[in-house]
Amino acid sequence: MMAERRALLLIGSPRGIGHSTSDRLGGRVLDVLKEHGFLTEKLHVHAAMASPQELESALAVIGAADMVILSLPLYVDSFPAPVIAFLEQIAERRIGAGRARLFVIIQCGFPEKEQNATALAIAERFAAEAGWSWLGGVGLGEAEWQHKDVARALAPVAEAIANGTAIPQSVLRKAMPAWLYRFGGNIMWRLAARKHHATRSLRARPYAE
Ligand SMILES: Cc1cc2nc3c(=O)[nH]c(=O)nc-3n(C[C@H](O)[C@H](O)[C@H](O)COP(=O)(O)O)c2cc1C
């Protein structure tokens, strides 16, 4: 009998399980791995960082995983801070070294997937320092608005991960035109300003004086 393979979805958004784009997209990949016979589990990084006990049990789960899917939002061209702290713990303590394989899904608010390039490089560097195998990653733009389409497009990626074949790059779709993004973005900012009674301050430059 083949040994059971364990896949773990690490969700690196403070919105957590059930509420984040990171969970919706990573969950889709996890579903496919489950269909391929993997034992699957989800873990919310921010919850794991909430206490030393939570951290220890999370690290134990990671130590037993063969495949780790890290799904997270881009924060200021990098990772949310608790994710950085969590990965530092893993690398320092050699959790999963020589065993775990890592695939990363990183998604951002801006339309261009290139926004994620630095963060993908950080993830690859983490894999090298932790002694994990780097399977690669996908960087996605505008995933929050279009998460259903993106999740569907991730299915062939998940198949490749499950089968150990080359990861297709086809999910990297075209971004919406820049003018349309600015147009929509400006409407959103004006609505938010109205809600907070700040319409008159939209052009304020408090640090410029
Ligand atoms: C504090 C913060 C920083 C962010 N930084 C960036 C950024 O540098 N570039 C970008 O394109 N989007 C940025 N975003 C947008 C998120 O990456 C985007 O909304 C993402 O889809 C959220 O995913 P989630 O639902 O899994 O948390 C930022 C959002 C927050 C809250």
Bound molecules: flavin mononucleotide
Strand order within the widest beta sheet: 2-1-3-4-5
Helix coverage percent of residues? 40-55%
Number of helices: 8
Going by CATH, the homologous superfamily of the largest domain would be Flavodoxin domain
The profile of the biggest β sheet is: 5 strands, parallel
For the record, the CATH class of the largest domain is Alpha Beta
Structural class: alpha/beta
Q: Could you list the spans in which at least 5 consecutive residues all have pLDDT below 50?
A: none
CATH fold group of the largest domain = Rossmann fold
Query: How many DSSP-defined strands?
Result: 5
| Radius of gyration over C-alpha positions, nearest whole angstrom | 19 Å
The geometry reads as globular
What distinguishing features does this structure have?
Rossmann fold, 2 domains, 44% helix
How does this model look, in words?
With 209 residues, the chain is an alpha/beta fold. It has two domains: 6-175, Rossmann fold, CATH 3.40.50.360; 177-209, no CATH class. Helices cover 44% and strands 17% of the residues. The protein has a five-stranded parallel beta sheet, with helices on both faces. Helix 1 runs parallel beside helix 6 (147-153) and helix 4 (81-92) packs parallel to helix 5. It is globular, with a radius of gyration of 19 Å. The model has no long low-confidence stretch (mean pLDDT 91). It binds flavin mononucleotide (FMN). Flavin mononucleotide binds next to helix 1 and strand 4.
